[in-house]
């Protein structure tokens, strides 16, 4: 557990949504002792998450607007975090967008946008913080992939989304090898069907019931189910866990 003797900051991207995995993750990490920095396209949402976390957990929290696909914006935001909060010890690459478009209908513009946010965004933020983590000899980096990357879509994401989330798996595994000797771990979390704003209202009751019936634990996942796994990976005690993918799907896609 992070202690007052080792104050560290966790950066969570895309954590503005009220019912999102990102916001739940900020709470889980703050409960574990991390100070929190929230990056989101929506400045007010990022600030709201930060206020909520600070009030509930008594940690320092900062909410900033940042487009993770913009290198200058990322550099400026991380600079603000470094100036205002303790050293960055954890990064959760949560910012992402999905697309259900069939492959034969997807345009190059849409394909590029999916990769811009999910892959380039993760690259830019990780590239900005990883070097200093390695210099300090401690870091916990977590990528949000998806069950779609492992099973090949079939839930909400189409080919573009599945391909982008699969790219993150390779990214994380290779980076884990490179940064491991410096005390920095890199892992992926692959959620299945989770009850978020992305899924709200997009499943008719018949399909929803059929999907739940195929889940061994017989329910859709909650954002806290994912956040708790991320917080576990971010602990100092989890230093022997790296290069792995942790499925959070209630057993629906056992492989």
In short:
Helices cover 45% and strands 16% of the residues. The protein has 255 residues and is of the alpha/beta class.
Description of the structure:
- It holds the Pfam family adh_short_C2.
- It comes from Streptomyces africanus.
- Belongs to the short-chain dehydrogenases/reductases (SDR) family.
- By secondary structure, the chain is α/β, with parallel strands linked by helices.
- Helices cover 45% and strands 16% of the residues.
- The chain has helices at residues 21-31, 43-57, 71-84, 108-136, 147-151, 159-179, 205-213, 223-233; strands at residues 9-13, 35-40, 61-65, 88-93, 139-144, 184-191, 245-248.
- A seven-stranded parallel beta sheet has the order 3-2-1-4-5-6-7, sandwiched between helices.
- Helix 1 (21-31) packs across helix 8.
- The protein is globular and about 50 Å long.
- 47% of the residues are buried.
- The model has no long low-confidence stretch (mean pLDDT 92).
Strand and helix map with partners:
Layout: E1 9-13, H1 21-31, E2 35-40, H2 43-57, E3 61-65, H3 71-84, E4 88-93, H4 108-136, E5 139-144, H5 147-151, H6 159-179, E6 184-191, H7 205-213, H8 223-233, E7 245-248
Parallel strand pairs: 1-2, 1-4, 2-3, 4-5, 5-6, 6-7
Helix pairs in contact: 1-2, 1-8, 3-4, 4-6
